[in-house]
Amino acid sequence: MFKIDFQNPVKIYFIGIGGVSMSGLAHVLLDRGFTVLGSDWNASDYTRKLQAEGATVYIGKEDPSRLQSDIDVVVYTAAVHPDNPEYAEAVRRQIPMLTRAQLLGQLMAFYKTSIAVAGTHGKTTTTSMVSEILLAAEVDPTISNGGILNSIGSNTRIGHSDFFVAEACEYTNSFFEFFPQYSVVLNIEADHLDFFKDLDDIRHSFLHFMNNTKKGGRVVVNAGIPCLSELTDKLSENYLTFGLTPECDYRATDISYDALGLPSYTLLKRGEALGTITLSMPGEHNVLNSLAAIAVCDDIGLPFSSIQKGLKTCTGSKRRFEKKGEFNGVCILDDYAHHPTEIKATLKAARATDYKRIVCVFQPHTYSRTKSLFADFVEALSLADVVVLADIYAARETDTLGMSSQMLCDSLNAAGTESYCPGSFDEIKKFLIKKCVHGDLLITMGAGNVVEIGENLLSE
Asked: What are phi and psi of 448, to 5 degrees?
C-alpha cells in the first residue's frame, strides 16, 4: 500500500474531491505542501475553497485524461466504483490507490494525540464537542469532522500541534484503517444492514476498531451499551466508561433543562463532583455525547475550565437541531437524524421545549434501512404530534424492496399518530403552510435533502 509521508509531499488526485470528508483531507495535504488535484460532478463551496487554496479541481463528468502522467497516488471514496472512468484509468496505469479511510488513517498516524470518535450515531456532534474543548484549551488541533462545525464555519481545521480529532465511520468497516491514541465508542446499534449481517456483526466490527487503539492509548466507551463486558473483556488497552449510572468513570447527575431544552448537570468523576456542565445543545443524548468528550479531554489532562468553556461554546454542527428561521410564528429546525434512536433523541429534545406542537417532516434514508427498522421508525416518529413523510431518499440504492413512505404513513395513522404523505417537496411545502399554526415547532429531519423544504418555506 502507498504510504503518505509529510516529509515527502507528492502529487495526489481525489476522485470526488467535493465531499465533506474528502475536501477536508485535501486541505490537510495542501497545508503540508502536497500538490492536490481532483474531480467532482458539481461545483460547491468546498471545491471553490480548495481552488482558492491552490488545488486543481475539475468539475463535471469523469474524464480519464485528467489523471496526469505524474500523479503519484489516487484517493477515492466508497461511492466510487470500478466502472468509474477515472478509477478504471488509475487501475489501467497501475497508479497507487488509497481509499478515503486509508488516507485518513495514515494522516492520523502523524499526530501524537489522535482521537477517533465512533458510534452508530452522535459521531459528528461529539467530534464537535471534543474540538471545541481543544480550541478552548488553545492546543491548536487539526480537526476532520463529518459536518460543518458552526464555530469555524468548516468541517476542517488545520492545526500545527500534535492534536488530531476525527470522526470514524463504521460503514464498510472503514474505521478499521484508524489506529488512534483515543478510540471513542458512543453506542452500538443495528444500522447499515445493507452491509452488516446483523447486530452481532456490527459489535464485532466495533471491537476490532477498539482493539486498533495504539499501545498505551485509551478506549472511551458508553457504559449503557448492552452486554458491554463481552466487548471490554476482550480489549487489549485500558478503557474508561461514561454514562448515567453509578459505576461509570464519568457520570452526569442532577440533570436539569431550561425552556429551550438545554441541559445542565453535575459532573462526577469516579464519584467525585468536579463541577457544573452547561450545554448549548438540547437533549439527554447530548449529555451522553458531552460525557464522552469530557472523558477524553480530562484524561489528556486539559483544564476543567477549558472543558466547561468548550462545551458551553459548542452549538454543534449544521443539520444538528439547527434553527433555520421562523414563518408566521412557526419555528423551523433542521436535523440530520435518520436512525430511529436519533429520531427519538431529537423529538424528546423538542418535547423539552415550550413549543405547543411538534410537526416533523421526515425523509426516510434508503430502502434497506426503512425495511429493516420499520417498526422502530413508527415508534420513534410517534413522539411527534404531526408527521409528514417525504419520499424515501434512495442514496446508493434502487427500489427493490417494495418499501414506500406511504407505508410508514399508514402504520403511523393506524397507531394513532396524525400523519400525511403529500407527495413532492412543493406539495409538502403547500401542505405545511396550511397545516402549521403560530407556536408550532416544525422539524425537517433526515440525511437526504429534506432541509430544502424548510429553506423554501423561509425563502417565500
From this structure: -95, -135
* Lookup: cell for 153: 464555519
pLDDT at 57: 97
How far is 358 from 447, CA to CA, in rounded Å? 19
User: In this predicted model, what pLDDT tens digit does every residue of 302-343 receive, in sequence order?
Assistant: 999 999 999 999 986 667 778 888 988 889 989 888 888 889
Take residue 256 and report the three cell numbers written for it.
436539569
All cell numbers assigned to 335: 436535523
- 450: nearest Cα among 375, 374, 360: 360
How many residues would you count in the chain?
A: 460
Q: What backbone torsions phi and psi does residue 355 show, to the nearest 5 degrees? A: -70, 150
pLDDT at site 145: 86
What's the whole-model pTM score? 0.79
As given in the structure block, the three cell numbers for residue 204 are 464485532
**Residue 345: CB partners within 8 Å, gap ≥ 6?**
121, 283, 284, 285, 337
Q: Which residues belong to the active site?
A: 123-124, 167
In sequence order, which residues have a C-beta less than 8 Å from that of residue 394 and are 6 or more positions away? 366, 367
Category of 119 on φ-ψ map: left (φ > 0), alpha (ψ -120 to 50) or beta? left
- Report which of 378, 400, 396 is spatially closest to residue 387, judged by C-alpha positions: 378
The DSSP annotation for 374-385 comes to HHHHHHHHTTSS
Q: Name residues of the chain where pLDDT drops below 70.
A: 316-318
- pLDDT tens for residues 153-174? 788 899 999 999 999 988 888 8
Q: How many CA atoms lie within 13 A of 175 on its CB side?
A: 28
For residue 300, the SS3 value is helix
| Residues 6+ positions from 8 with CB-CB distance below 8 Å | none
How many other C-beta atoms can be found within 10 angstroms of the C-beta atom of residue 411? Answer: 18
